[in-house]
Specification:
- The structure holds two protein chains of two kinds.
- The model of chain A has no long low-confidence stretch (mean pLDDT 92).
- Chain A has helices spanning 5-14, 28-38, 65-76, 125-131, 149-158, 166-182, 219-222, 232-240, 258-270, 287-298, 317-328, 346-353, 364-376, and strands spanning 22-25, 42-47, 59-62, 79-80, 83-84, 87-92, 96-107, 112-118, 136-141, 185-196, 201-203, 207-210, 243-246, 251-255, 277-280, 305-311, 337-342, 359-361.
- Chain A folds into three domains: 21-92, ATP-grasp fold, A domain (Dna Ligase, domain 1); 96-222, 2-Layer Sandwich (D-amino Acid Aminotransferase, Chain A, domain 1); 231-376, 3-Layer(aba) Sandwich (Rossmann fold).
- Chain A is built from 13 helices and 18 strands.
- In chain B, helix 3 (76-88) packs parallel to helix 4 (103-116) and helix 7 runs parallel beside helix 8.
- By secondary structure, chain B is of the alpha/beta class.
- Chain B folds into two domains: 10-123, NAD(P)-binding Rossmann-like Domain (Rossmann fold, 3-Layer(aba) Sandwich), CATH 3.40.50.720; 142-292, Rossmann fold (3-Layer(aba) Sandwich).
- Chain B has helices at 19-31, 57-64, 76-88, 103-116, 159-170, 191-200, 217-227, 262-271, 283-292, and strands at residues 10-14, 34-39, 47-48, 51-54, 69-72, 93-96, 121-123, 129-132, 136-139, 148-155, 175-180, 206-212, 233-238.
- Classes of the chains: A alpha+beta, B alpha/beta.
- At the A-B interface, helix 9 of A face helix 4 and helix 5 of B.
């Protein structure tokens, strides 16, 4: 789960990580009042749950009340990568001397949380990791011991933090890890961590990703959850708890299990058509889930055909076939639908689908061929 | 003979009284798996299909004797605690079926296994389990698709593994052991560790590796195969049509920026001399070809 910069900064403040003075505004008028209160210049920053807002013009500096009003007005009317900007963060503009990068991420191959620090702050850290890996200091964290001060000092030395900044730097990194662990984060980034001209270290930006699997024990933060998908079908799928991703093609796809469903998409593309979506109904094949999935896919105007690919496994094929037929009751199936079902009692399953509009396919590859030909007609 | 589990393996089921736990325990016993006990806190003294249930792992071992592997059907919020309980009681192998365990819990579990030493291992979470066909099934996979034989199978997926194994079986290519390592970002045994076990197993002649988008586990496997693996490996990678930044069903199946694409994994295998099937139905043929060479 993503959270907004202003929300992440509120958590930073609770954990004694210095942030710029500032406040959230919902309207240009509010932005003007906050800015006047803060004193000029101020930074006005779009609060939107996608990256790249700087490049899109979502961060502007204002040096007077009228400028602040106008900047907020412009930003609040923007859509960034399809998402409307509903709030802006109005902050004191910091007098920057140097910019650092400080972050914590879960490293999948090390199977540890890793502290990363770099003197090249304010730029895309993934780019730095690719082009100048030596410019990033990294240290893995033992989950039982936590991040130790000596590890932070080692990072600080490597990126040549001046000795007089060591104490605040160590405190910020230590507090960031405390927040990371407490909030079940998978990423916490301060980019840039600004050294101001008067010698203070301040988190000018804040990025926090939280583990979806841990939201059950992060109730306060989970309340911030908001729908980030602009696509109405993806929104609906998420509300229904379906693992659905919308794509650009014409073949609607339902599969059971993530790997098999991804492979079904690949098979359709290989057969010369394009998948309209990914929809994984989980390891089993429950009739109510198939039904919800079908209903959703049929709402996509681009869909010219459907391919249902189920590996029966422990669930018997005749049960799955009955489920699909039940799912189709009351659904207006205006497009061809190929079904591939395999597992125990496959023959009984096939017989149940005889005399229905559904087209039987013996294998995934054959099913993909059939649906690709049907959507081209 | 095979890897990690065989007909002698003594198995404990944690979370045995839940719907899934009870259902799959019955199927495992039917397959011939030696299930010696179950554990559900608060349910000690009950039994599931004649399997005695205990309140704790410690009590179970005290009553039934040593346990080699514990399989977990414990709900996600309680899973890490159950894993650490089994580790503390001296169990060396674990198969974690549960989906949705918080990442930070798994970081602790991983570290606890490191500290416990190299003879301790776990598979999963969010996995179908492990099966040595004809001997021992620990997990939720459909038994009928498997056949004893010389092919090792490793996969991050569930149903896709059954699909591939069914095709191998139809082609007469039986399996030594099939390991579903799980679809989460943090898992126990990874491709490289399982490849190493297959490499050392005299009964495994070739390995089928089923990968998917996300992470760099496949790239690391390709590197290991190039450097050390003497037995033939055939690979498949799911998710060539997956877009960037979207989770494709599995928590770990996500392309981040340029990281974790199917093409990067396919390129790594190809560079390591590993044949990559375009579709699962080509796998049996590629395995037969590799075995002939």
């Amino acid at each position: 789960m993503k959270v907004h910069e202003y929300q992440a900064k509120a958590l930073f403040a609770q954990h004694q990580i210095p942030i710029p003075r500032g406040q959230v505004a919902n309207s240009p008028e509010e932005a003007r009042l906050i800015a006047t209160d803060l004193g000029f210049p101020v930074a006005i920053k779009a609060q939107v749950l996608v990256g790249g807002r700087g490049k899109a013009g979502g961060i502007q500096i204002a040096s007077g009340p009228e400028e602040a009003f106008q900047a907020a007005e412009r930003i609040l009317s923007m859509r960034i990568k399809g998402l409307p900007v509903e709030k802006v963060l109005v902050e004191e503009a910091l007098p920057i001397s140097t910019e650092f990068y400080l972050g914590l991420i879960v490293d999948r191959s090390l199977e540890r949380t890793v502290l990363m620090a770099s003197a090249l702050g304010g730029v895309d850290i993934e780019e730095v990791a690719l082009t100048q890996p030596d410019a990033i200091a990294k240290v893995p964290v033992d989950p039982f011991l936590g991040l130790c001060d000596f590890q932070i000092r080692a990072c600080a030395r490597k990126i040549r933090i001046s000795p007089d900044l060591l104490t605040p730097f160590v405190a910020i990194a230590r507090n960031l890890y405390a927040l990371f662990a407490k909030a079940d984060a998978t990423l916490a980034e301060i980019n840039p961590l600004v050294l101001t001209k008067d010698g203070r270290l301040i988190a000018a930006d804040a990025k926090l990703l939280l583990d979806d699997s841990a939201l059950y024990r992060q109730k306060a933060i989970a309340q911030w959850r908001e729908e980030v998908e602009e696509d109405p079908l993806e929104r609906e799928a998420h509300q229904k708890g379906l693992a659905y991703v919308r794509l650009q093609g014409e073949v609607g796809i339902i599969g059971n299990g993530a790997g098999l469903t991804m492979t079904t998409l690949d098979a359709v593309q290989r057969a010369g058509a394009q998948p309209a979506n990914f929809l994984d109904i989980g390891g089993g094949a429950r009739a109510d889930v198939v039904r919800e999935g079908l209903t959703l896919i049929l709402k996509d105007p681009q869909v010219k055909g459907i391919f249902i690919n189920i590996f029966g496994g422990i669930t018997r094929c005749d049960e799955v076939a009955k489920g699909i037929l039940q799912a189709l009751e009351g659904v207006d199936l205006a497009v061809p639908c190929v079904v591939r079902l395999t597992g125990t009692r496959e023959e009984e399953g096939r017989r149940l689908l005889e005399g229905t509009p559904l087209i039987w396919a013996p294998t995934m590859e054959d099913g993909a061929q059939k649906i690709a030909e049907l959507v081209k007609k | 003979m095979a890897i990690l589990v065989n007909k002698e393996t003594r198995v404990l089921v944690q979370g045995i009284t839940g719907r899934e736990g009870a259902f799959h325990s019955r199927l495992m016993v039917e397959y011939g798996t030696k299930i010696v006990a179950g554990v559900t806190p608060g349910r000690g003294g009950q039994s599931v299909d004649g399997i005695p249930v205990f309140d704790s792992v410690e009590e179970a071992i005290a009553a039934v004797g040593p346990v080699d592997v514990s399989v977990l059907f414990v709900p996600a919020p309680f899973a890490a605690d159950a894993i650490l309980e089994a580790l503390d009681a001296g169990i060396k192998g674990m198969v974690i079926i549960t989906e949705g365990i918080p990442v930070q819990d798994m970081l602790k579990v991983t570290r606890a296994f490191e500290v416990a030493g190299p003879d301790h291992w776990f598979i999963g979470p969010n996995c179908p389990g492990i099966i040595t066909p004809g001997q021992c099934k620990i997990g939720i996979m459909p038994a009928q698709v498997f056949l004893p034989g010389p092919i090792g199978v490793i996969s991050r997926s569930g149903t896709l593994t059954y699909e591939v194994v069914a095709q191998l079986t139809r082609a007469g290519l039986g399996q030594s052991t099939c390991v579903g390592i799980g679809g989460d970002p943090i898992v126990g045994l990874d491709f490289v560790e399982v490849l190493r076990l297959f490499h050392q197993d005299p009964e495994t002649e070739a390995v089928v590796l089923i990968g998917e988008i996300g992470g760099t586990d496949e790239e690391e496997a390709a590197d290991y195969i190039r450097r050390e693996m003497k037995k033939p490996v055939v690979a498949f990678v799911a998710g060539k049509t997956a877009p960037e930044g979207k989770r494709m069903g599995h928590a770990g199946a996500i392309i981040m920026g340029r990281m974790g694409t199917a093409q990067s994994k396919i390129d790594a295998f190809t560079a390591a001399g590993v044949p990559v099937a375009e579709m699962p139905d080509q796998i049996p043929h590629l395995v037969q070809k590799a075995l002939r060479q």
